[in-house]
């Protein structure tokens, strides 16, 4: 285990050489081992993880804790964030710009020689929102990916450190610009086709020759290559699929427009037309398949509500909303793991490969031509679990809402972490997008794609304490049948639950008492008018609803009926 020096001792000394202790990097041997495993080397500054053994194969995930050293256990949330793999030529303003979309940045420590930085947010809530967002959308600085995690330091004390004048000036400038809807100035001029002063971070997108479906998720994957995408709204106008997309930085919008305007999303079709919007920011009210605010995980799905607010509707004349082109999960496009996938741009560094749509796209599944089968895995790493309350069965029921769970392993010596193997990578991505950042047993869980390709069952005679379960033959799988209606009823966790398979003789009082006696606050209940086999029940919070689904899904109601519970997009 890497040990961390006392922050107080480092800053009290006030000597520059102590910075090498604060952000000391791994040895070359350890770094090489991490690169060999497919993960970038990590510094010791955050003290939230252990180094990886280079001899550990990707499928070796038995109960021995040593085999999991590559899966870093995250720190508790902190308003101080550690940024790794920062390009040496980066400016203070660029680092600060990573944080300002999520709240005020109050301090900065940039260590170019170590390719690292620390930023301090004004609040822990802002830091949590930022980490949740960047968990699923890796930020890029100067076309290079950077990695952000919580630091175990609670605050940055840089008053006595040299060369902090530039950092403080950048903090004041960027924070002021962001709060005043100003932009960072670029080096290009209007005369040479560069960025104009005051240019908007919002792009308007039109997709022409729409022979194949283009979803919000596809746009996010493509445009994230050029910077942090904060919000997306899709709509129709003049029978054309259009979208508004907001970046964190106007310079990112400028680069995306230059690179993507006129490019085909798929070979020979779905041509992008990109222009700057007159809007300077987007107001997203709902997170669903038509609109998304990636900085706000708490927004409702807004069933049947307009995507655009009245001011945007009048500006874009879009009273209609585009219906999802996918027949899959509740209008959400199948989650796609793009590994260098996107458009073909020969002149751009790190050019993205061609996308092609095979016939499988028309059945709700998309495959990326030329993408290695191992580019994305079907195994999830779930961390920050409550070890006193969690069980393999509970995780099976919860993650089974978004796909068929084959195996669950709670780590033997780190019971706050678990590995969950889904039926395929699409289901793993779907579960991650809906469950990352949700509260379970009083803790905010974090869900990421694991480096492991499978979850190994314990060897015969090996101590396991029932922490590993194989559910591949379970009758409770929701998605075994091709074309099942369950694919059309997948929604994010909400306080309202959808109940089905209810016996004809069951009353509303019986069901309300069932939930209340289990410790849940029942706020509202109603049967479906046309089918009393189904009902909606609204509980006190999303966290309560998550726990109730785990506890009461498949509950025996008698008369050979077992209750089916899922999340609803509706409210009562």
Automatic annotation (TrEMBL):
Domain RRM: residue ranges: 79-153, 203-279, 378-452, 495-570
Molecular functions per Gene Ontology: RNA binding
UniProt main location, coarse: nucleus
InterPro entries: HnRNP-L/PTB, HNRNPL_RRM, Nucleotide-bd_a/b_plait_sf, PTBP1-like_RRM2, RBD_domain_sf, RRM_dom
A single Gene Ontology CC term: nucleus
Subcellular location per the Swiss-Prot or TrEMBL entry: Nucleus
Region annotation Disordered: where it falls in the sequence: 52-74
Record key words, sorted: Acetylation, Activator, Isopeptide bond, mRNA processing, mRNA splicing, Nucleus, Phosphoprotein, Repeat, Repressor, RNA-binding, Ubl conjugation
Protein name per Swiss-Prot or TrEMBL: Polypyrimidine tract-binding protein 1
């Amino acid at each position: 285990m890497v040990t961390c020096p006392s922050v107080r001792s480092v800053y009290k000394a006030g000597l520059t050489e102590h910075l090498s202790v604060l952000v000391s990097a791994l040895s070359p041997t350890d770094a090489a081992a991490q690169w060999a495993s497919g993960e970038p080397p990590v510094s010791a500054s955050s003290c939230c993880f252990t180094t990886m053994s280079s001899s550990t194969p990707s499928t070796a995930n038995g109960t021995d804790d040593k085999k999991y050293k590559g899966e870093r256990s995250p720190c508790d949330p902190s308003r101080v964030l550690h940024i790794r793999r920062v390009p040496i030529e980066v400016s203070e303003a660029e680092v600060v710009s990573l944080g300002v979309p999520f709240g005020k940045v109050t301090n900065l420590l940039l260590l170019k020689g170590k390719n690292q930085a620390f930023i301090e947010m004004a609040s822990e809530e802002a830091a949590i929102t930022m980490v949740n967002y960047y968990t699923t959308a890796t930020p890029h600085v100067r076309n290079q990916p950077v990695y952000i995690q919580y630091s175990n330091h609670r605050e940055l004390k840089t008053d006595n450190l040299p060369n902090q004048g530039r950092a403080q000036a950048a903090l004041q400038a960027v924070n002021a610009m962001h709060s005043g809807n100003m932009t960072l100035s670029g080096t290009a001029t209007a005369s040479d086709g560069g960025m104009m002063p005051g240019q908007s971070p919002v792009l308007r997108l039109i997709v022409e020759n729409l022979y194949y479906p283009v979803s919000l998720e596809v746009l996010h994957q493509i445009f994230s290559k050029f910077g942090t995408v904060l919000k997306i709204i899709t709509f129709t106008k003049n029978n054309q699929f259009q979208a508004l997309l907001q970046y964190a930085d106007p310079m990112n919008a400028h680069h995306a427009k230059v690179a993507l305007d006129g490019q085909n999303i798929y070979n020979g079709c779905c041509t992008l037309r990109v222009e700057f919007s007159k809007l300077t920011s987007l107001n997203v009210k709902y997170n669903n398949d038509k609109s998304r605010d990636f900085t706000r995980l708490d927004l409702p799905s807004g069933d049947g509500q307009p995507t655009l607010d009245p001011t945007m509707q009048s500006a874009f004349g879009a009273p209609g909303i585009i219906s999802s082109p996918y027949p899959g999960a509740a209008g959400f496009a199948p989650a796609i793991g793009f590994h260098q996938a996107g458009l073909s741009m020969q002149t751009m560094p790190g050019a993205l490969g061609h996308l092609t749509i095979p016939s499988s796209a028309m059945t709700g599944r998309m495959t990326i031509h030329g993408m290695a089968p191992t580019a994305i895995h079907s195994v999830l790493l779930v961390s920050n679990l409550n070890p006193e309350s969690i069980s393999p069965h509970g995780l099976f029921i919860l993650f089974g809402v978004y796909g068929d769970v084959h195996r669950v392993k709670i780590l033997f010596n780190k019971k706050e972490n678990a590995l969950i193997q889904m039926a395929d990578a699409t289901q793993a991505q779907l579960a991650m997008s809906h469950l990352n950042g949700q509260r379970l047993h009083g803790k905010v869980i974090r869900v990421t794609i694991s480096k492991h390709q499978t979850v190994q069952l314990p060897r015969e005679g090996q101590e396991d304490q029932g922490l590993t379960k194989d559910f591949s033959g379970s009758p409770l799988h929701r998605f075994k049948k091709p074309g099942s209606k369950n694919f059309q009823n997948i929604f994010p966790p909400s306080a309202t639950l959808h109940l089905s398979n209810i016996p004809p003789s069951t009353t509303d009082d019986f069901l309300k008492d069932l939930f209340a006696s289990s410790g849940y606050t029942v706020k509202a209940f109603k049967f479906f008018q046309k089918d009393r086999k189904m009902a909606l029940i609204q509980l006190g919070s999303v966290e309560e609803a998550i726990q109730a689904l785990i506890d009461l899904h498949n509950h025996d109601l008698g008369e050979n009926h077992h209750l089916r519970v899922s999340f609803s997009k509706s409210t009562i």
